[in-house]
Design brief:
Layout: H1 3-16, E1 35-39, E2 43-49, H2 58-69, E3 74-77, H3 81-89
Parallel strand pairs: 2-3
Antiparallel strand pairs: 1-2
Length: about 100
């Protein structure tokens, strides 16, 4: 399973719940998570998508900490099974 396939399945699952999962691009501020997950009811989280078994780089971990310190949830997703966990934590019923 590739990172791209996991990311596509995440986007599809979010859409099925009535949300959006835009690619998060932050010029001049490297290391930010790949996707912003927005679900109805003002539910928001960040997701770093990785190939199975891959880990975030040190700069990515620093950005994750920054976001968490600001009160946001940040997930590292490296499997399709993890999608259900993330969406369930957000209060959605992942399919």
């Amino acid at each position: 399973m590739t990172e791209k396939i996991i990311e596509q399945k995440l986007v599809k699952a979010v859409k099925e719940l009535g949300g959006i999962a835009p690619k998060f691009i932050s010029p001049g501020f490297d290391g930010m998570p790949d996707r912003l997950i927005l679900l109805p009811g003002c539910r928001i989280t960040f997701v770093e998508v990785k190939a199975p078994g891959k880990k975030p780089r040190p700069l990515q971990l620093a950005r994750h900490k920054l976001l968490r310190d600001l009160g946001f949830k940040v997930y590292v997703l490296d499997s399709v099974a993890g999608i259900k966990t993330i969406l369930s934590d957000m209060g959605g019923d992942a399919k």
